[in-house]
Amino acid sequence: MIKLIECPRDAMQGRERFIDTAIKAAYINQLLQVGFDTVDFGSFVSPKAIPQMRDTAEVLSLLDLHQSKSKLLAIVANERGANEALFFEEIDYLGFPLSLSETFQQRNTNKSIQEALVTIEEIQNLCETKGKTLVTYLSMGFGNPYGDPYSPDLVAEFVKNLNDLDIKIISFADTIGSAEPSLIAELYKVNAETYPTIEFGMHLHTRPQDLRPKIEAALNAGCKRFDGALKGFGGCPMANDELVGNVATENLIRILEEKGYENHLDKNEFSEAMKLAQVVFS
Fold first, then answer.
1. Would you list the DSSP string of 210-276?
2. Backbone torsion region of residue 232, taken as left when φ is above 0, otherwise alpha when ψ lies between -120 and 50, otherwise beta
3. What secondary structure letter does DSSP report for 208?
4. Residue 243 contacts by C-beta under 8 Å, 6 or more apart in sequence?
5. Residue 79: count of CB within 10 angstroms of its CB
6. Which helix (H) or strand (E) element contains residue 94?
């Protein structure tokens, strides 16, 4: 089974026009009917940094989870945000962006890497107390545009640090769309073999023409956890002047089906979500 994580939060967060709270909730409610493993629905971060996400708590209050098997994930950037997210029983996962790039860690969370690692330990302790799971995203996981140090050995060092903190889910994040298929395969295979108790995933930003070889490389290396966003909307507004969009979920599904993987999604509900996405992001 492939775990599909749908990321409306990532699709929405960089958009300049504020999306009405009721519209956000209606869209996410539709996604919750599709059958995704997890829906990355919002973030508890500074509204000054990401104004689009300032209504996450209100959106959550409007979600209907009774008929959905999907779990909810919210992004946090500090202990304050984690405590806010942990207040809500409906949230299953907290996500934290840990960068391999010192420059991007400062841009994204206003912390150094060492400070971010301390924060991860604090949030991990909170999650364990509350029965939640922390998902750590290794952003700039395939290189960075700032000239900061990068190598597969550096990735391995970060993964070791996270393993020492008993982190159970790590997603390699290609924040700027620079990952080469060979590097995707290498990072996944080496780390998954070294740390078999960790669930590794891929959160790729990519241009549509580059998608297939990247997904195939990850699949061939054994990856079974993929993030996406319908129609490929989104990207990280803190990373670069030019947003590189998310993996388009519909294209990811097409590749998976061609490879013989079952996704157990409700195709009718998925079709409705695709129609609604066009309205929400028009």
1. GHHHHHHHHHHHT--EEEEBGGG----TTT-SSPPPBPBHHHHHHHHHHTT------HHHHHHHHHH
2. left
3. G
4. 14, 234, 235, 236, 237
5. 14
6. strand 93-99
Q: ∠201-203-14 over CA atoms, to 5°?
A: 155
d(CA 274, CA 154): 39
- Alpha-carbon span 200 to 202, nearest angstrom: 7
**Amino acid, res. 103:** T
Return the percent helix, strand and coil in the chain, to nearest 5: 45, 20, 35
Q: Mean per-residue pLDDT for 208-234?
A: 94
DSSP annotation of 18 reads: P
User: Rounded distance, CA 102 to CA 104, Å?
Assistant: 6
Question: What is the reported pLDDT for 237?
Answer: 44
Residue 239: pLDDT band (50, 70, 90) is very low
